[in-house]
Amino acid sequence: MNLIEFIFRVFTPFNTFFIIVATYFITIYFYLRWLTKKYLNPVDRTHDLNLSRRYLRTNNQVRQELEDRETINILVLTGGGVRGMIPLQVLEKLEQLSARKTGELFDFMAGTSTGAISCAILAVPGIDHQFEFCSSDILGDYAGNSRKMFSAPWYHKFLTLFGMLGPRYLPEGKLEVLRSFFGTCTLADIETNLIVPVYDVTENALKIIRNWELPQGNHHTNYVLKDLIHGASNPPMLFSPRSFIISNKKHVFIDPGVILNNPATIAFMNAWFLFPEKKLRLVLIGNGGSDAEVYNHEHMAEFGAYGLFQYLLNSPVVNTKFSTDLLHEYIHEAREYGVDIEFIQIDSRGGKDLATSDTSDENMERIREFGEKLITENYDKIEYLAEVLKIKK
């Protein structure tokens, strides 16, 4: 048997297919192990934070800073991927009408996922205790920055079956965008009061990160802002999480949006605990997501496996809507107990078909048009807010 006959006998169509498939999955295995080692190999941030020499404020300092304020104004932004452009369009209109930056208008800002990104950028300090960015600065290249974030090289798509076997995107583009806004800024550098929910994988627990200390001597960690916000906006099915160490303690943060897409209740409770005697004004700006939709419950009561499938299919909608409904219930009960709270929700139905990670020109244009529609429908609320917020300082 010569060499050519041997090759033809061994490499039959079936054997060749088997070898190609086996090679492909072996390559996938080593590629995913390489990704894990690359992104979960912790970076020690202790030295960077020690160099900043900044510490979180105490809750008493927060009270003193706002003691002359009659009304405490709170901004809340929910998650939603590239639909995060919609609340920024609303804030841009609010800034135009009030002639102030968003950071000047609100005493507290809270955001989940893409909302955390926007809130943190709007809270970055500038010169002389001013705010560095306004909504227009984020909107200026929103589509371009979104494409950087939601990107991956061809080999990553090929070796993860387009996100089925691993994170759909690599984090380098996202980190580049965050670095361009945050630089070396830390949580303690933030000018306003910021609330960012994260899920800490190392402790298997939801955490509410604030840039001030709580009473009874509880110690909260200062974070490099790009690390914190990357984790807070990092669904593991979309991006590889990153690991970092602070004072010998390891952290791996991911997006808590599946269990807490709307941090409004948390923001309300934190402001209320600090200022139980003051009026609270809570402004929730949505992006046409599930909390604005009416979910169909009919099939969820169906018999057997079909009903279970319908429940699983609808559970993200139910969960997000539940967060908003729970907020309404809390506010209603708080008013019954004499809490002075004004709740303003700016949102619109009809946005559920807007994709959250599609950065195509068509989807981005649909989002922009939906934002304009939302502004038109809520213009009276926005105009009212511009009047009452611009006189707060």
Kindly describe this structure.
- By secondary structure, the protein is α/β, with parallel strands linked by helices.
- 48% of the residues lie in helices and 14% in strands.
- Strand 8 and strand 9 form a beta hairpin.
- The longest helix has 33 residues.
- The radius of gyration is 24 Å and the shape is globular.
- The model has no long low-confidence stretch (mean pLDDT 86).
Please supply descriptive tags for the structure shown above:
14% strand; 48% helix; two-stranded parallel ribbon; single chain; nine-stranded mixed beta sheet; alpha/beta; 393 residues
Share in helix? 40-55%
| Total number of beta strands | 11
Give the H and E element order. HHEHEHEHHEHHHHHEEEHEEHEHEHH
Gross morphology is globular
How confident overall, as mean pLDDT? 86
Distance between the termini: 92 Å
Short description:
The chain is built from 16 helices and eleven strands.
What is the element layout, followed by pairings?
Layout lengths: L2 H8 L2 H28 L2 E2 L1 H7 L4 E2 H7 L5 E7 L7 H14 L3 H4 L2 E4 L2 H9 L12 H5 L2 H8 L4 H6 L12 H11 L10 E8 L4 E6 L1 E2 L11 H8 L10 E4 L2 E6 L9 H11 L4 E7 L18 H33 L4 E6 L14 H17 L1 H11 L4
Helix pairs in contact: 5-15, 5-16, 7-12, 9-11, 11-12
